[in-house]
Predict the 3D structure of the following.
Amino acid sequence: MSLEYYLIQYVSDPFRNEGRNVALIGTCQGKGYLRAIGLASDGSVDRLPFCSIAGLSRDQSSIWPEWIHYLDAVTAVEGRAGRSLELEMTRLSERDLHFVSGGQGSVSMEEGMSPDKAMDELFDRLIGDVPANPDDLFFERLEFVFHCAEVSYRQDFWESIEIDIEKGDEFVTISLDAALVTGKTAGFWIVRSANGAIKAKQGLKAAISNLQKAVEVGFLTQTTSIVLTDSTWKPDSPISRMAQGITVININDADAPSRIHAAIHYS
Amino acid sequence: MLNPTYKIRSIRSKRTFGATAPSACSIDGILKFDGPESPHCVYNEQVCCRLAQTLHIPVADGVLTTGTDGPAFVSLEVSSPGERLPDIHYRSLPKIAAKYQSEVAAVVAFDIFIGNSDRYRNMKVSLVNDQLRLFRAFDHSHALLNIDLDAVEKSVAILESDALIAEHHPFYGLVDSIALRSWCQRIADVQDVMISECCVYQKPFRGVPAWVQDRLAAALNGRKRRLLSIIQANETIVRTRHSAFL
């Protein structure tokens, strides 16, 4: 007896087209089976693991329960037959850029093994548990800090935004993780050490490039261009040297909200 | 609670003048053209969008733009905060009908009014999150002048008749009859001139001559008055769920 399965991937940046396995639908003997990140056996959904792997804030990740609801319906209906499931997965990849079918496969099951057990083993191998470490709370903490700094409820506060500034005959495009775009402007870039030293340096390099453009065109000042991190960098480390002259704030520090507030209002 | 329906892609430089400090921005959209399978798609989409806005039907907003061979239609991409919502699955239809009773009735009344038999999964709905209310239908390329692909005159003639046209609909058998009656009455109560202004451009619109636009306006004004009686005459169909959606 064999179990046919389809992987569902989340593609954070469709341009890079790098997917992360987030769910698995299996079909065996006319019945569908679903496993997904954050989906408990009682059907309840914890959004936090998805926040963590997708790099979304808790507010933004409200989309994940909606997708699990859809995948559950697909599992119950199209999961009854491999052909129907294949068609729905093809349709999904054609209609959506962020949630796509990540390929299919089949596994033969040993005698006596239940499809549920086979799905659990497949889930462990193909998706696995999202590590429950303090990094998972990064976006929770970020929301809290923005809230305390009296930033997040401003009408001109935007997250994950590109801003085009007119400079002469052309537009200069600045990518920001968050920004206050009118009145007292401010720009925020996130550089996470939890993703490893190399990625942190790459992130900082990209942030500096955008930051310099923003300062050059007069959209931001050096003080209101803020890099937010999840750790305090050692003063003599290469990344600290790269960040010289830039406002770097560790969001886990108790004074992070007041420093952000001061940078915006008293600079 | 007001939820954002369209996600901003980028913001352009702020203006330094104006009390509200406005900024230019870009929003994602789906560009639609005329094609062999939908020869009057742009006109259809534009008219349906204007009708829906006039009648307050929850469909995706859209705008006209200029393509290489004339006007094209951009349907603004419905999005909830963060990422796109999944397409609806027909297994979720009862839950949608329960959460969005009025919106569902509005869309059923509208689809019968414009002769749209292609609603199927063309909706974006937030279903799980109680804090988020988002229901928007989209895609009207097969309604109005594309009911019969052979000739626009035939499509208009069908709209002039008492035919239900939308023989299959995902919300038949689920729509609340009182809410549906109420929406039919609202559509019937709209002044003729308001409907006409949605249809008539007083000049050819792509392949749609002005006389066809006039005739369509007259057909819709007649149909809105007969909408309730059309539904009553087809009550068995409207009250029964089609096997394709079970």
Q: What stands out?
A: Chain B has a mean pLDDT of 90. The first strand of chain B starts at residue 8 and ends at 14. Residues 210-233 of chain B form the longest helix (24 residues).
